[in-house]
Amino acid sequence: MNITGLVAVSGKPGLFKLVGQNKSGFILEGLDAQKLKLVVNLSTSKLASLEDITIYCDDEDRRLKDIFEAMKVYSKTIPSSKEDAKVLRAFFADVVPDHDQERVYTSDIKKIVNWFSIIKELPLFDEEEPATETQAEETKVELVEESVKEESTEKKAKTTKKPAAKKTAAKKD
Questions:
Q1: FRET label pair with 3: which of 71, 87, 114, 129, CA 20 to 30 Å apart?
Q2: Which residues form the DUF5606 domain (predicted)?
Q3: DSSP readout, 103-169?
């Protein structure tokens, strides 16, 4: 699942895809059928990248992407975001049994279910996540380290140590 570039905007329903940036803010495109484009100014609105959202759990927080993956393989039908709070809580307890029930509110569960219903119809739902920059950088660092090791091994094999000449200092009276 590739949720890179998907954002939620405070005060706006639905999800948006980050298209670009200009002087006044970010250019977003709606993921609904209308494909509405809008410019969001960061001084007046808050953007939340789905990639950065985590859910409180007992041991450690879980990424939203992992929650979506669990919902994807869930065997029963996923309830609507308009269902009763008890139904949504029971569903979320099945999908994420270790979530912190005190800190994860019903409104959060409604948002997650709503977002899932939006993105499950998109092609990026089945798309693999591209390699991140940190993964690419780690690969580059590993390759550089390997080449440096190979070069130093080759240099050691080619060079032989010569005995150092002794220096004597003459004293002047």
A1: 87
A2: 5-50
A3: TS-HHHHHHHHHHHHHHTTSGGGTSPPPPPHHHHHHHHHHHHHHHHHHHHHHHHHH----PPPP--P
- Looking at the chain, the number of H-run helices and the number of E-run strands are 4, 7
Give the number of other Cβ atoms within 10 Å of residue 77's Cβ: 7
Q: Which residues contact 80 (CB under 8 A, 6 or more apart)?
A: 113, 117
Domains recognised in the chain with CATH numbers: 6-125 (1.10.10.1650)
Contacts of 136 (CB under 8 A, 6+ apart): none
- Distance (Å, rounded) from C-alpha 7 to C-alpha 32? 13
pLDDT tens-digit series, residues 106-119: 999 999 999 998 88
CA distances from 120 to 2, 71, 85, 126, 152 (A): 11, 10, 22, 8, 52
Region 154-161: mean pLDDT is: 53
- Residue listed under structure tokens 């094999």: 157
